[in-house]
Automatic annotation (TrEMBL):
The lineage of its organism: Bacteria, Bacillati, Actinomycetota, Actinomycetes, Micrococcales. It comes from the Bacteria. This is Xanthine dehydrogenase accessory factor. Coiled coil: none annotated. Pfam families: XdhC_C, XdhC_CoxI. Residues 11-72 form the XdhC- CoxI domain.
Length: 337
């Protein structure tokens, strides 16, 4: 649920009632882990995906039922004692990727997957969960969040704060989002801001030009700061989970800002530039006393060599390089592995 926080919060503020379906247990192989959520609002619109298509239609129907007044419940659970040897829930693939649920127990929906696994999915109203809403707000702001919900018994769907003693809880946690700091309010920065926010980063855009550095141009950003970067960066307490990208060439702040980020131990530091500009910046950083190894760590020119031309394509190549560096991967095609 927390991974959908921004959109969930927007739905709430628009006055929609929302049902949330969350994978609370995985048996065998499944496309996505426990904690993955899908949300359905009162007009039927869908946010997120649980399995990439295997059980979404069943979950959508269950969410609509909860919105219509059905109680919170868990789909796909098999009670071994009650089933007394009955066949497990499973699904069989049919032509056209339709799924037929076979052997549902106790009138429940089959949560079997074509990959052979099974998931248990809790379906409940978000409106009924004050603590859930509070944690959604925290996650949307890029802050750490933690939420527990009862997954069995008559209190199913209740927050941990109001759970009966001993009730089984499913806990969902989310670390404070890593920050992606973009210096320069360019078209490439706008595209990267949207991609980064979609990938779970808390994006900070900074540019001293107030006419360009606006929330309207960067709606997905957590913070948009129209100020000199070298004044803003020391206040951010950058660290190894963060990334900083210089998206514009401006000698009034780019080299100094890179030096601040490098000395702070920022996990990824990169700059869009020609090789000539890169070398000139490197010379400036060395002259300012920045350690040579730190200067050499700056990713510039920025992005993977994928033939990118447009701002959107360049943003994809930059985010791919950031993710590969963060994971310590060589950014090879999966088909070549």
């Amino acid at each position: 649920m927390l991974e959908l926080s921004r959109d969930l919060l927007a739905w709430q503020r628009q006055g929609h009632r929302v049902a949330v379906a969350t994978i609370v247990a995985v048996h065998g192989s499944a496309p996505r882990p426990a904690g993955t959520s899908m949300a359905v609002r009162d007009d039927g619109a869908v946010l997120g995906s649980l399995t990439g298509g295997c059980v979404e239609a069943q979950v959508h129907e269950a969410c609509l039922a909860v919105l219509a007044g059905a109680p919170a419940h868990v789909l796909g659970r098999v009670d071994a004692a009650a089933s007394a040897g009955a066949a497990d829930l499973f699904a069989r693939a049919l032509p056209g990727d339709d799924l037929l649920g076979l052997g549902p127990l106790d009138g429940d929906l089959s949560m079997g997957l074509t990959c052979g696994g099974r998931v248990e999915v809790l379906v409940r109203l978000l409106d009924d969960s004050p603590d859930a809403l509070h944690q959604v707000e925290r996650a949307a702001e890029g802050l750490s969040a933690r939420y527990g919900v009862v997954v069995d018994g008559p209190a199913t769907g209740r927050d941990h704060a109001s759970a009966p003693e001993g009730a089984p809880l499913f806990w969902e946690t989310r670390e404070a989002a890593p920050r992606l700091v973009l210096l320069g309010a360019t078209a490439e920065a706008a595209a990267l801001c949207a991609l980064g926010a979609g990938a779970g980063w808390s994006v900070v855009v900074c540019d001293p030009r107030p006419v360009f550095c606006t929330k309207e141009r960067f709606p997905e950003a957590t913070h948009v700061v129209a100020a000199w970067p070298q004044r803003v960066l020391p206040t951010l307490a950058l660290g190894p989970r963060d990334a900083l990208c210089v998206m514009a060439h401006d000698e009034r702040y780019d080299a100094e800002s890179l030096g601040i980020a490098l000395r702070a131990g920022t996990g990824f530091v990169g700059a869009m530039a020609s090789r000539r500009t890169r070398d000139r910046r490197a010379a400036t950083l060395l002259a300012d006393g920045v350690d040579q190894a730190l200067v050499a760590s700056v990713r510039s020119p920025l992005g993977l060599d994928v033939g990118a031309r447009t701002p959107g394509e360049l943003a994809v190549s930059v985010l791919a390089e950031i993710l590969a560096a963060r994971a310590g991967r060589g950014a090879q095609p999966l088909s070549a592995a």
